[in-house]
């Protein structure tokens, strides 16, 4: 006796979308050892349940070992402030600076799943980064998103300018060495933080176009008690104007959780000689939970080539 059966079925392509969309999740600045979280939402519009898994580049088994993936980056144009390795600075503690919950699961038909991404750095750095990939059980990728964040030891920060360091750090904490005996004045005086801002005005057909750069002053919102607003001040603004520089605004306040854009403009002053480099240094004081001074170097010139 032979039993014959006809089997039929329908293949369904998983329909899963992610919100917010985009390829970058920027956590901004947080205080060291503090944390902040953002939520990704997966929506399953399929008629069947769909399984998913979240992968992080920093813990991927396929990631090259011993930093082999960073060699081409170090040999390339790392001076570009917008270029950064996929996996940047990590925590000294060895714990992941970016964590995800849940890392896998199943989404019922017509339902959604929230994925919480937490940024928790343990030391100051502006080079924290990683890459998050959400993959379905059929190996299709519904989300590939770069993660980025920065940490500060105090609640006010000045962001922007030219890159002065390579965006790759050693995971070894700074070495503790014996210090010479300091006087009271030396103990009170804190070292300033260097910032370089290069401005290139352009010359074309007898017309000079002013150079403009943007910096940002921010105040980190924290659960720790602090005064309502913080202050910033650019010193020696009058001397800057004599050399063709203008800063707007040169002083002001910033509320916690907000940032203000500072526009730095350079127009060659009268008597400027072609190919001359104009350079000056100005202190910028930030007063938040503590007072910090940034040593901003403004370097300007006129370029006849398109940048």
UniProtKB/TrEMBL annotation:
Per UniProt, residues of the MSP domain are 15-169
Q: Does the keyword Chaperone apply?
A: no
| Any single GO CC term annotated in Swiss-Prot or TrEMBL for this entry | cytoplasm
Q: Which UniProt keywords apply?
A: Cell projection, Cilium, Flagellum
Q: Which InterPro entries match?
A: Ig-like_fold (IPR013783), MSP_dom (IPR000535), PapD-like_sf (IPR008962)
* Ribonucleoprotein found in the keyword field: no
Kindly provide the name given to this protein in its UniProt entry.
Answer: Cilia-and flagella-associated protein 74
Question: What organism is listed for this UniProt entry?
Answer: Collichthys lucidus
